[in-house]
């Protein structure tokens, strides 16, 4: 596994590198995130922002009560978010549990959604507490069922205990299972990492181990994708690119429910990592309720009236 010249491959070198990372200025990060949250988008750009946000949504259902019917309905919405308007873009991906991957992939292919990837939450989501054998099998099962993206969770207990080599090795092994068949998104569960310094360390650890995306949260633990946390992760991918010339994606998930929330995320991306990251290949938002609000706001821009929730599906 290449370390892009940053460490020599040993656990000692990895730990030394992570410990030498500069600390995050908590006050500064929170102040900058708050300042960027006040930025507004011109009316002429709002339609572009809404459509960009739609195109980067990972439309998600991760409930014990999920049924094949619910997943198929969500897939239909992913391909044609507004059945009355074919100009609305498809979403970035459908995100489901392993046992629903085949259902999602089959239905997407049947309705003209071959371009919409299926993402599977894997590696004993959401806790990450399982043997490596189980995590590998979990990942392989998802890929065999048609998943093109794997959202894995790190072992937060190991990370917080300073066992960075263990966490690194797990990511490397899952990356090897993914091969060229699936992109790997690594979930930190930032609400459990507690500090911005830990978020920065986790970001570099995952990127060095081969992650294609770094992701804030499972959506099961609060706080999740807070603006300062996303800012720290965006700074990490920006700086990693400046060193390695490799762009890593970022996926905030949890708590992003409104168009205003989504636009704040777009501003964060543009002002921190740069406009190159404003694509589904490098930025996603994990959400379920968000899409409906984006669609209603888009309808308002078209006819001047804010549509009621009756005009969108109940997911």
From TrEMBL:
<dbReference type="GO" id="GO:0004139">
    <property type="term" value="F:deoxyribose-phosphate aldolase activity"/>
</dbReference>
<dbReference type="InterPro" id="IPR002915">
    <property type="entry name" value="DeoC/FbaB/LacD_aldolase"/>
</dbReference>
<protein>
    <recommendedName>
        <fullName>Deoxyribose-phosphate aldolase</fullName>
        <ecNumber>4.1.2.4</ecNumber>
    </recommendedName>
</protein>
<keyword id="KW-0704">Schiff base</keyword>
<dbReference type="GO" id="GO:0009264">
    <property type="term" value="P:deoxyribonucleotide catabolic process"/>
</dbReference>
<dbReference type="InterPro" id="IPR013785">
    <property type="entry name" value="Aldolase_TIM"/>
</dbReference>
<dbReference type="Pfam" id="PF01791">
    <property type="entry name" value="DeoC"/>
</dbReference>
<keyword id="KW-0456">Lyase</keyword>
<dbReference type="GO" id="GO:0016052">
    <property type="term" value="P:carbohydrate catabolic process"/>
</dbReference>
<dbReference type="GO" id="GO:0005737">
    <property type="term" value="C:cytoplasm"/>
</dbReference>
<dbReference type="InterPro" id="IPR011343">
    <property type="entry name" value="DeoC"/>
</dbReference>
<comment type="pathway">
    <text>Carbohydrate degradation; 2-deoxy-D-ribose 1-phosphate degradation; D-glyceraldehyde 3-phosphate and acetaldehyde from 2-deoxy-alpha-D-ribose 1-phosphate: step 2/2.</text>
</comment>
<comment type="similarity">
    <text>Belongs to the DeoC/FbaB aldolase family. DeoC type 2 subfamily.</text>
</comment>
């Amino acid at each position: 596994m290449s370390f892009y010249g940053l460490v020599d491959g040993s656990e000692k070198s990895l730990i030394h590198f992570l410990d030498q990372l500069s600390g995050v200025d908590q006050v500064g990060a929170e102040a900058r995130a708050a300042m960027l949250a006040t930025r507004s988008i011109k009316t002429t750009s709002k339609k572009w922002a809404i459509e960009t946000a739609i195109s980067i949504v990972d439309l998600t259902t991760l409930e014990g009560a999920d049924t094949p019917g619910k997943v198929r309905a969500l897939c239909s919405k992913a391909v044609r978010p507004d059945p009355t308007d074919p100009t609305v873009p498809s979403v970035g991906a459908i995100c489901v549990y392993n046992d629903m991957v085949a259902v999602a992939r089959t239905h997407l292919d049947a309705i003209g959604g071959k371009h919409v990837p299926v993402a599977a939450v894997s590696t004993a989501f959401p806790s990450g507490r399982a043997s490596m054998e189980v995590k590998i099998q979990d990942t392989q099962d998802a890929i065999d069922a048609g998943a093109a993206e794997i959202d894995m969770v790190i072992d937060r207990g190991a990370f917080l205990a300073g066992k960075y080599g263990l966490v690194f090795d797990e990511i490397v092994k899952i990356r090897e299972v993914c091969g060229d068949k699936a992109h790997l998104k690594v979930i930190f569960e930032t609400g459990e990492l507690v500090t911005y310094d830990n978020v920065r360390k986790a970001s570099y650890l995952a990127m060095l181990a081969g992650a294609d995306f770094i992701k804030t949260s499972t959506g099961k633990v609060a706080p999740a994708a807070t603006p300062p946390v996303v800012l720290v992760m965006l700074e990490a991918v920006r700086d990693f690119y400046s060193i390695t010339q490799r762009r890593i994606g970022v996926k905030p998930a949890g708590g992003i429910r409104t168009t205003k929330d989504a636009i704040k995320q777009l501003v964060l991306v543009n002002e921190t990592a740069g406009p190159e990251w404003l694509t589904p290949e490098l930025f996603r938002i994990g959400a379920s309720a968000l899409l409906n609000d984006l669609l209603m706001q888009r309808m308002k821009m078209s006819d001047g009236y804010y549509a009621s929730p009756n005009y969108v599906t109940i997911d």
